[in-house]
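All the exercises in this workshop are built on plain-text protein records. A learned vocabulary of local backbone shapes supplies the integers on the structure line. Once this layout is familiar, the rest of the handout is easier to follow. An example says more than a description, so a record of this kind follows:
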Amino acid sequence: MTLTTLWLVRHGESVGNVAATEAEYSGLEELRLEYRDADTPLSSTGEEQARALGAWMERHLPEIGAVWVSPYVRARQTLATAREAAGVDGAAAVIDERLRDRELGVLDRLTHTGVASRYPDEAARRRRLGKYYHRPPGGESWADVALRLRSFLRDAAAFPTDQGLIVAHDAVVMLMLSLLLPLAEEELLAFAADHTVLNASVTRLDHDGTGWRLTTFADIAHLQREGADVTVHSGDPDVEPR
């Protein structure tokens, strides 16, 4: 048995999402946030979204033979809350560090205004290299994240199941698409410019025997059915806020 359906879920709204959006639109240089990125929890709205995701899991989780989750608190909290709300058994979750969010190095917690003010040379280098290849000092480029996801996908292919679920971050979802569809740099950036991985949304990829195809992108029907708020936060600062 080989993996033929892959579900990609972004975590619910986090307090970091809220702080980043508020800082960007207020013209601040730095996020007002007390947590390190790995420890940032869900907001109250994110918890509501995760419970609504449970309605989706109630229908689908029994058929999913492998579940992987980012080690970051907001992703693990989303999965745990959704599973509790679903009230159904499913495969035990595997925490995999390769599914963590993109690391920003010296630019961590800074807004676009903050980067331009404190690291003007780095901002210029980013404009020259483009968002896919720009690696902040001490951080990762999108290409770096793609490299660790290639490693993850090789291991995931060995699981004896036809359906797998990943709960992670918007950059992880976007780069999974780039690897599996596949999308070249220009195609990925064009897609990311026009598509947002919404909080607690579900993306589905299916393998038709010759290659992967995108069946559903950032579906939020479960949020709408359960009356949960739909939030739009780019998450990865290299995806422009909307």
Notes: The radius of gyration is 17 Å. The domain at 5-226 is CATH 3.40.50.1240 (Rossmann fold).
